[in-house]
Amino acid sequence: MFSKLGKNGGRLSKRFVRYNSSINRNNSKNPLLAYTFAAIGFSGAGYFIGKALSKEPLPTSSDRSTSPLSTLSSPQYANEKDFEAGLLKIVEIVGHENASFDKDVLLAQNDSFYSTHHPPNPDVQKPSAVIYPTSTEQVSEIMKVAHQYRIPIVANSGLTSLEGQNIHTRGPYSISLSFQNMNQIVAFHPDDLDIVVQPGVGWQELDDFLLGDPKGKNLKFGPDPGIGANIGGMVGTSASGTNAFKYGTMKENVVNLTVVLADGTIIKTRQRPRKSSAGYHLTRLFIGSEGTLGIVTEITLKLHVRPRYEFITVAAFPSIKDAASAAETIIAQGIQPNAMEILNETMMSFVNETSDGDKQNLETPTLFFKLGGPTLESTEEQANLVDEIAKKNNVMKLQRSTNDEENAELWAARRNGLWSTFQYGSKVLKDKDDVQVWTTDVAVPISKLSLVISEINDYLIEKGFKDRFSVMGHIGDGNCHFIILYNSPDYDKVHHVVDHMVERALSHDGTCTGEHGVGVGKRKYLPLELGVEAIDTMRQIKLALDPRRILNPDKIFKIDPEENLDEQLDQGSVKVKPNCMHNH
């Protein structure tokens, strides 16, 4: 084939030479034509030389592929009069029964008590109304009004975000759009292994639905983030959880989305086939966008076959390095646990201290495995291979479950790790009535995880946080979480420690956030990780889809050159809530 192309190419080049030579021969016989072509040649050359010497005008913002912050003016949002006019129309759309102006409700919508980050100016940065739509069509009508009156909209589903995604930075003339009433299973296709849900459906409720359905009891949804998380928020932050090593993150588990754009336009990102190369991958564009590009109102999720057999193996090691070495060997040998988690020695001690039963866990770095398969033999074989690898990496104690009851018992330490840290905090902090917890995550290539955990661990101890932090990680994908206990006056100190954590992760080709999203808490790190040009590209996409900048303003990156939210956060001016859920 290539030889034929070569021959054809040769014939084409010869014909081109002959064509040119024939023109030259003909021109030589006609002096007038020759002079004409010469004149055209000189004038053409003059044109291109002049073009080259003339100064090109600078591109306008509309000519750019990116949107540097310096090229933007501050967004203009609704004043009190416009807001009231728009709000009246929105309430008419949903009905008075689906709108709330209650002070406590407004506070809860604005300030996620799961988050370390709270509104710097809570008296101003708050919504004036909470709207509860019941359909995609209602959301569309709401957005048409919001777009017309330039009303900021912050959508939410479960209010469990950790990086301040729900803060109304453009309050008080803003609206919280709650998906509390959009919590239905829309369609279930067991033969296709997918299910269509509204954003207010919780992942745990989804699992209960599948277990209770005759055609769904052998199926499961892969991602399993924190308790209380809903599908809408999981899409917004591209959440994952302990099962990510086997089943992936939300990006790998969403088939398509129905999205309402800033002006009320309704789009569906693709159809239901698992495989499609039809145009841009809009589904992935909206996953992880935290409600800044559009409002997701319907999600088609992939389902997986539930393992028929599943064991829990717990392996305690003398060091993080030994545990990480075992995990890396398991991955390298192609063994595929359903979950592979690591808890450091401090976390294990917190679990023991808050356990109702006898202390049974070694307080050393510990790996937790979910090992499953279609047959008992294949599952046992996988568990035996894990045991062998653990023994070669200096394992100190091995435990394996044999039934569902033991599964729950052994996995309890991993499941309760976060809550154990909350409970233990009241025992170790100076002010036991002011227990605050900063939960953050980073992710690095798998081979770097043990090094990064060790570096950050040593730094935390150096800065005075010994026995006041714990580590748990999804070691199968290089994602680790640090949970730091502190009293409110130490906010600045903790903030600087988190800065260092991110710096260490980025220095090892990592990311500032593995699964919590960016919000306002991780926003300042994004240019360091991706570069200013990448952020400018994101901003261009934002402006194309939301030109009035009304969708969850100021999250992920700056959209206003005059806004100084990062500086407020750096200075510790965020008001830490004394009555937040961390005080349990």
Automatic annotation (TrEMBL):
Main subcellular localisation: mitochondrion
Keyword DNA-binding appears in the UniProt entry: no
Ranges where the FAD-binding PCMH-type domain occurs: 123-306
InterPro entries xref list: FAD-bd_oxidored_4_C, FAD-bd_PCMH, FAD-bd_PCMH-like_sf, FAD-bd_PCMH_sub2, FAD-linked_Oxase-like_C, Oxid_FAD_bind_N, Vanillyl_alc_oxidase_C-sub2
Cofactor: FAD
Keyword rRNA processing recorded: no
PROSITE patterns to which the protein is assigned, alphabetical: FAD_PCMH
Recorded family membership: Belongs to the FAD-binding oxidoreductase/transferase type 4 family.
Name of this chain's protein: D-lactate dehydrogenase (cytochrome)
Species of origin: Candida albicans (strain SC5314 / ATCC MYA-2876) (Yeast)
